[in-house]
Amino acid sequence: MANTTLIDRALIRLSGDDVRGFLQGLVSNDTSGELPVWAALLSAQGKALFDFLIWGDGDDILIDCERDAAGDLAKRLTLYRLRRAITIEREPDLCVHWAPEGGVGVVDPRLPELGQRWLAPADGDVGADDAWRAHRLALGVAEGRAELGNGTTLWLECNAAELNGVSFTKGCYVGQENTARMNWRQKINRRLVVVPIADANEKRQVIAYPDLGCSVEHRRVESIDAAAAPLWMRGALVPAGA
């Protein structure tokens, strides 16, 4: 079996006093139900600072995030902790694993086509990160600060609603007011989209992947070709009343 470890991912463990309730008041998705879920920690304006998957482990929570952002995310969560009896630290014994198909793990909560995901010890020094990135971008799914931006892109412009990364029925959380207003008014004017690099627009480009022949761009909705967009996005590109 090919290696499945995502070396570019890290896990942060939250343990202690009602960690689900702690996150419920901070992140974009509902942590009170079945896990894992995809979620984000937003700025007060509703822009994505960190995106991650949230897993349950008994009474603890494990946050599956990009490795390069793990330290910053842990520090931000610690600031919000205040005097709660909660421990926030890196989980050294487990890693994130991925496979495009199979019966191991659970289906990615964003999109079934993304494949299977699970937590376990590392299976070697060579990771599955390149295969995961190619698979994910082929499906038009962006993640991480290099693609979503670092406090520069509104969470709904990251396709959070279409990829199950936001709850509109839970209570308040950081950035909730603007996110909810955009949703109810259907005022999502721009979206992140993955396009062939031959169609790249440098003014709208967030990051290019020449090795994969694609570009992640922050485009106005009217400039996105619905016919070429991934199936999961097309419904969001149809004007209201059409």
List keywords for this structure.
3-stranded antiparallel sheet, 5-stranded antiparallel sheet, alpha+beta, 242 residues
How much of the sequence is in beta strands? 25-35%
Tally of helical runs: 6
Alpha-carbon Rg, integer:
18 Å
Largest sheet: spatial strand order: 2-3-4-1-5
Mean pLDDT: 95
Describe this structure in words.
With 242 residues, the protein is an alpha+beta fold. Helices cover 21% and strands 28% of the residues. The strands form three sheets. It has a five-stranded antiparallel β-sheet, covered by helices on one side. The protein has a three-stranded antiparallel β-sheet with strand order 6-8-7, with no helix packed on it. The longest helix has 15 residues, at 67-81.
Describe the secondary structure blueprint for this structure.
Layout: E1 9-16, H1 19-24, E2 37-42, E3 48-57, E4 60-66, H2 67-81, E5 86-90, E6 95-99, E7 106-107, E8 116-120, H3 129-138, H4 145-148, H5 176-185, E9 190-196, E10 205-209, E11 214-220, H6 231-237
Compact overview of the structure:
It contains 6 helices and 11 strands. It is an alpha+beta fold. It has a 5-stranded antiparallel sheet, covered by helices on one side.
